[in-house]
Amino acid sequence: MALSLNPIAFSLGPIPVHWYGIILGSAALFGLFLAIREGKRFGIPSDFFMDLLLIGVPSAIIGARIYYVAFKWDYYSQNPAEIIQIWQGGIAIYGALIGAIIAAFFYVRAKGYNFWRIVDICAPGLIAGQMIGRWGNFMNQEAHGGEVTESFLRDTLHLPNFIVNQMNIDGVYYHPTFLYESVWNLAGLLLLFVLRRRPFLRAGEQFMAYFIWYGLGRFFIEALRTDSLAFTGPDWLAAVVRGLWSPMTILFEEGNMSYGNIRVSQMLSVLIIIGAILFIVIRRVKGYAAVRYADPIVSSKAPSDPAADTKPGRKDEQSGSAGDGAADRV
After folding, report:
1. Which of 57, 218, 249, 313 has the most CB atoms in a 10 Å sphere around its CB?
2. What InterPro entries does the database record attribute to this sequence (predicted)?
């Protein structure tokens, strides 16, 4: 029988270096590259995004851990010493997003930029990072779905040997949900690339499109997993969630839940999708979405040019040309 891949890439003396960490680091750097490249179109210095990453990554880790511990509080309240033992596993992507967004909000505001303009630029980097990061779960043989047959992986999905072999855990084959989500995120990345060049896109809507796309995929993929955070909710709510997922039963069986009747990520995905759609619609209806994605981005704390301000009519001309240039770029 083929052996699974070693989750440890190499060792530095007594310190093992895991593929999981290497992959997550690569994901963060690729996301940074995408943000810096797009930021150059708007004249935003690369140092801004580097600092944002340095602040966002630890905030994401803290948020991911707090989120996970909160939904496992019955256990951690009895074992408080394990709360900080993140190396034992136990983080959640939605918690990471919450932590990173909170940190980004204060950092962006401190730099004088509009929050929605910056997160629009970062949205492709976020989904690209998630696309790559899921391969860390692959190396650790975690975050997989329920049991499947080897034939399903080889003959139905036509997966290469290295994936099929890695999905064989203790003699049982499982759904490669990491792969489903990675491919879904790749499609989302391409969608965001196309969307940000459309003339109808307003500030904040690229970020909301990311949430809608990711939330939609996560809702359907999450139900295949067997390690979901869950809670016990009213039967009618559980029935609604199962009803929304029911079209998937044509192809897949829902993964078993070890407790509860509603998966947290599924419920949160639904709320995020609804919230993102309402955000777009309300801002459009109320007239708050006047700024386009392609419009210039200027920091309120950027130093002004005294010489330019003293020239008659110069300020108005600059303002008008900036708007015209934005329209041309659209």
Report:
1. 218
2. Lgt (IPR001640)
